[in-house]
Amino acid sequence: MPGLLAVGIPLAVGLVLRAEAVAALLMVGTITGILLATAMNNAGGAWDNAKKYIESGIYGGKGSETHKAAVVGDTVGDPFKDTAGPSLHVLIKLLSTITLVMAPLFV
Predict the structure, then answer these.
(1) pLDDT < 70: residue spans in the chain
(2) How far apart, in whole angstroms, are the C-alpha atoms of residue 8 and residue 6?
(3) Residue 15's pLDDT is what?
(4) pTM higher than 0.90 for the full model?
(5) What 3-state DSSP class applies to 62?
């Protein structure tokens, strides 16, 4: 379903609202995607590094309440830095490729 949205929305906007609207969609999608991907990559890395820092003995080390909280944070952080952030870069490329290939239909 997300793949269909990435392909279908630019087509629908371009065919219904024409070239200016699909250009705006592409610009907003690119800006938002880059900001979100950067934030997710950095947050995931920060949570992973925080857990490693606590495991080195700071703030009680392994087995402490702080470590338990860091493990929970790292559980969220790993998918952020490994999958969600990088996949947004693929989405941005897909949006721009679909828009450029279908541009003659929108003009």
Answers:
(1) none
(2) 6
(3) 95
(4) no
(5) coil
